[in-house]
Amino acid sequence: MHARSLCLAALGALALATPALAQKTSVQAIEEYREMLQDGNPADLFEMKGQDLWSKKRGPKNASLEQCDLGKGPGVVKGAFVELPRWFADTGKVQDLESRLVTCMSTLQGIDPNEVIKGAWGKGERANTTALATWIASESKGLRMNLPQSQPQERVAYEVGKRLFFLRGGSHDFACASCHGEDGKRIRLQDLPKLTGNPGDGVGFSAWPAYRVSSGEMWSMQHRLNDCYRQQRFPEPIFGSDATIALGVYMGVNAKGDKSAAPTIKR
Predict the structure, then answer these.
(1) Are residues 125 and 52 located together in one domain of the fold?
(2) Mean pLDDT for the chain?
């Protein structure tokens, strides 16, 4: 009788352990998959395109972007990515990397902002903006996220972003927090990073722009947030909207101290 009890106990323990072992195996397999793909990440091609676009004279003004101020001074790229979104005095707005690039493309090169704002993902000037963002992000790889909160507008943006993060709506009654508000959430065998803590998970914020294997495209943070809204069944935000920028501030401030990994590779 004693031996039978021990056998049942062992079987019970194995049954309880099996899901945990399976989960661990799935997570490990995904990490190994990402590591294999990282060697030869197609994002390298977008980096090269972005670097070329930065110094290339274009637009009605036949000028380059080499005097673009991303927050560290005209032309300074290294370290800019890990401090964006931030407030800019010349526009009087809090801007993320992409909306700031649109400002520079407009003022320095004379390119119509609507070519980006009303454009399509992966095409034309919107694709150029993504390539530029990819290269600029790569120049800060390994640096720690450190978004400023010294300006009142930056602090307001953080609070607005926080409210938007927890706002439920759409036909599925989803919020950003539905997937990224607590530990242990998974979807399609992938761990979902919790983005409400401090420091937040760098995989969730400081890894974009990223190359999406499933679509064969380079995705910027604007693209990622727009697609999140689509999945929540919300209307797609306008490119560079105050809402998406505020969400970027909230997640970026929460990621303070995390090392930037962008550009990365995603499923």
Answers:
(1) yes
(2) 84
Residues 177 and 262 in one domain: yes
Is the bond preceding 263 in cis, omega lying within 30 degrees of 0?
yes
- For the cut 70, the answer to whether the pLDDT of residue 53 exceeds it is yes
- Single out the residue of 73, 58, 133 nearest to residue 99, CA to CA: 133
Q: Which domain holds residue 10?
A: 2-37
For tokens 């972007």, name the residue.
Answer: 65
Q: Report yes or no on 48 lying in a domain.
A: yes
| Same-domain pairing of 89 and 160 | no
Q: Which of 7, 104, 176, 228 is catalytic?
A: 228
Give residue-wise pLDDT tens across range 183-194.
666 555 566 677
pLDDT of residue 200: 59
Q: Please tell me whether residue 122 adopts helix, strand or coil conformation.
A: coil
* Same domain as 48, residue 30: no
Question: Is 228 one of the annotated active-site residues of the chain?
Answer: yes
Residues 31 and 54 in one domain: no
| 220 token code pair | 């910027």
Q: Is the pTM of this model over 0.70?
A: yes
Segment 50-54 shows an average pLDDT of 98
In a domain, 143, yes or no: no
First to last CA, the chain: 51
User: Can you tell me the mean pLDDT for 233-261?
Assistant: 93
Number of domains in the chain: 3
Contacts 24+ apart (CB under 8 A), 163-166: 164/243, 164/246, 164/247, 164/250, 165/195, 165/196, 165/247, 165/250, 165/251
Distance (Å, whole) CA 188 – CA 33: 15
pLDDT at residue 162, rounded to an integer? 95
Residue 145 lies in a domain: no
Mean pLDDT within 244-265: 93
